[in-house]
Design goal:
Blueprint lengths: L3 E7 L6 H7 L2 E3 L2 E4 L2 E4 L6 H9 L4 E4 L3 H13 L2 E8 L7 H9 L6 E5 L5 H15 L4 H14 L1 E5 L4 H6 L16 E7 L2 E8 L2 H16 L4 E7 L3 H14 L3 E8 L2 H7 L4 E7 L1
Parallel strand pairs: 1-2, 1-6, 6-7, 11-12
Antiparallel strand pairs: 3-4, 3-5, 8-9, 8-13, 9-10, 11-13
Helix pairs in contact: 3-4, 5-6, 8-9
Length: 281
């Protein structure tokens, strides 16, 4: 059995299944709670079911994986031949997932380095892919962590939401709370900043907000070799159109991923979400 450094992440990375399989990346699912029913993201609840629940204003909350779930994952990965594990997770400002992983790592059968990437969605996914590229080339745990942290530091995520109401309900809007009340009438553009969701700009209409999102992404990616992800929730036409425009405008584009976010992020953003992750290589 060959010994190797394995990469673990969580379900909010929204990596394409083929990418996870190709690079041997293991995912630990977060949980979405609909009423009194707890469902694993990615396997037990669809984004369509989530969108319908949100539109009907059913109670929706999310929860981290337990330390026991992480411990079982680390044990399984070690038994598959890993000599060490790099465990990369969404911002600790947004979830207790990192803390649960740290607790489990203390009792793992092989060394585990747990990293709070400070990002989420494909910003996290790109970190996992960067770390996997290092380990596939024979790199050490430290080198894989450095690659992931470097990728996280250079990656930016911007997103448009139809309403701040879902973020307000989940307490995820940070200093953007200043927008509440009268500002709920505008169309906000938000960004991830130091692991938190912060207001970037206020725009009057959805069409202008999406056009502005495109310009911000193009400016951020200009002149660089970049990977880009376009995320959405229940807005596939918007996402496809934005992705096509970005493809035409960015000659340095390496990979372009278009995907619907999972239930955990969707629960806090609501239907209509459109996001762009810009990740220089």
């Amino acid at each position: 059995m060959s010994r190797h450094v394995a990469i673990v992440t969580d379900s909010t990375a929204y990596l394409p299944p083929r990418s996870m399989e190709r690079h041997g990346i293991t995912t630990v699912p977060l949980t979405v709670v609909l009423g009194d029913e707890a469902l694993e993201e990615g396997t037990e609840i669809s984004t369509r079911a989530l969108a319908q629940a949100l539109q009907k204003r059913r109670p929706v909350t999310t929860s981290r994986p337990s330390p026991q779930e992480f411990a079982e994952t680390y044990r399984r990965v070690a038994e598959s031949g890993a000599s060490g594990i790099v465990s990369l997770h969404l911002s600790a400002e947004l979830s207790g997932t990192y803390d649960a992983a740290v607790l489990a790592a203390r009792e793992a059968p092989v060394p585990v380095r747990v990293v709070d990437t400070g990002v989420v969605a494909m910003a996290l996914g790109f970190c996992a892919l960067a770390a996997a590229a290092v380990t596939e080339a024979g790199g050490t745990m430290d080198e894989a962590v450095t690659a992931a942290e470097k990728r996280a530091a250079g990656t930016t995520a911007y997103f448009y939401v139809d309403t701040l109401d879902y973020l307000r309900r989940g307490g995820r809007i940070g200093t953007a709370q200043a927008l509440l009340g009268s500002a709920l009438a505008v169309k906000p553009l938000l960004q991830l900043d130091d692991g938190r969701i912060e207001l970037l700009e206020k725009v009057r209409t959805a069409s202008k907000a999406i056009a502005r999102l495109e310009e911000i992404a193009v400016d951020r990616a200009a002149g660089a070799e970049v990977d880009i992800a376009v995320h959405h929730l229940a807005a596939p036409e918007r996402a496809a159109a934005l992705a096509e425009r970005l493809r035409e405008r960015l000659p340095g584009l390496s990979d372009l991923h278009v995907s619907e976010v999972g239930a955990v992020i969707g629960a806090h953003t609501g239907p209509g979400l459109l996001g762009v992750v810009v990740s220089p290589r």
